[in-house]
Amino acid sequence: MSEEDYKVKTDYISVSQLNTYIKKLNENDEVLQNIKVQGEVSNLKRAVSGHVYFTLKDAEAAMKVVCFRTYLAKISTEISDGKKVIVSGSISLYVKDGILQLYATNIVSAGVGDLYQNFLALKEKLEERGYFAAEHKQLLPKYPENVGIITSNTGAVVHDMIRVLRRRYPGISIYLYPSSVQGEKSLIELPAAIKLANLHAKVDVLILARGGGSLEDLWAYNTEVLAQAIFTSKIPIISAIGHETDVTIADFVADTRAATPSVAAELVVPEYIQLLQQLDQYAHKFISMTEKITTSKANKLQQDVLQRLGNSLQAKLKREQDNTKRVAKQFEQAVLHVGDKALNRIQQASIRLDLLSPLKTLSRGYAICQSPLSGKLIRSVHEVILKDQLSVQMADGKLHCRVEGVSE
């Protein structure tokens, strides 16, 4: 669309028409279509498609860069954050998002970036001073009651950390020391927050935290002033800056480094449920040890008592044994005497019973008549009829008879 077409047709155009128009202007500009730009690589991202996206920066400005995989395959220079490069390509507008980008066709190294050089120089300087030495690292408290957080009070980081701390250890007290996390203000506010926390002396441990970002975004954590504040802090400090791949001077100086802010929150407090389980295990172990000690002491006391009684107790025991044997002998004699008298009485009673026995009567010629079926004694002739079967007990046996006649 030309300017004349625009003026004739309408007094406005759509966003897509505007972006398309700007895109064509760029594509018709010979300078923008064959340009070389020097800057420092930042916020590098490699897409699954094979394309590479990053920001090319200097001290005052930035430009989005995309390098498609077809061109990337021909580039021998290694691309990484902080590296200074010269990018060849063309400038065009991405119509959909309205983003002006440098479409790279070639990338060559221009040396290490200024920011990265400053980072390495400060790192070497502080390492020589002993800021990173293990002997200067403070141990984190196992069971802190108060935790301090130094971060932005408006970002998602502080809310994520508070949620993790409350979940793991519900009784913990949390103090927030708000600070900018990037930009000019952060250079002053971050070390000031550490000094304020030390001045108040309310917390047992400090977490220095922020989300991820480029080398420029994290530069406030690469200053000598902040490093000195961390090093001189009387309160142990956990560094939780960016993602696991992000490394800052603050990470080297801090007493402990966490991969992310949420991981720092997990490191600083124990799991409440696990703590209760440990206490329960300790209680059972204490009871078991107490029982063993008590039993051991009781056995030792018993042995000491027996040892002290010694011969006296043995002599007394011997006397008691002799007395027991004497009493047992007397009891045995008494039992034998009583037994003899009882046996004599039994014999006399046996004689009397024998005299009264029915067998004695039978031996004198008498007999006992019974019904063989019921065993009933027959005492009268009226209790039988003719042909009845009878059993007659004699002194030396039985007769089996049948009634042939009855006479009174």
Radius of gyration: 56 Å
Helix content: 40-55%
Q: Could you tell me the mean pLDDT?
A: 84
Strand fraction equals: 15-25%
Strand order of the largest sheet: 1-2-3-5-4
Low-confidence stretches: none
Walk me through what this model shows:
The chain is α/β, with parallel strands linked by helices and 408 residues long. It is 46% helix and 22% strand. It has twelve helices and 13 strands. The strands form three sheets. The protein has a five-stranded mixed barrel with strand order 1-2-3-5-4. Helix 6 (156-168) packs parallel to helix 10 and helix 7 packs parallel to helix 8. The N and C termini lie far apart (164 Å).
Q: Can you describe this structure in just a few lines?
A:
The protein contains 12 helices and 13 strands.
Topology at a glance:
Elements: H1 3-9, H2 15-27, H3 30-33, E1 35-46, E2 52-57, E3 62-67, H4 69-72, E4 83-94, E5 99-112, H5 114-129, E6 146-151, H6 156-168, E7 173-178, H7 184-200, E8 205-210, H8 224-232, E9 237-241, H9 249-253, E10 256-257, H10 261-268, H11 272-356, H12 358-363, E11 368-370, E12 389-394, E13 397-402
Parallel strand pairs: 3-5, 6-7, 6-8, 8-9, 9-10
Antiparallel strand pairs: 1-2, 1-4, 2-3, 4-5, 11-12, 12-13
Helix pairs in contact: 6-10, 7-8
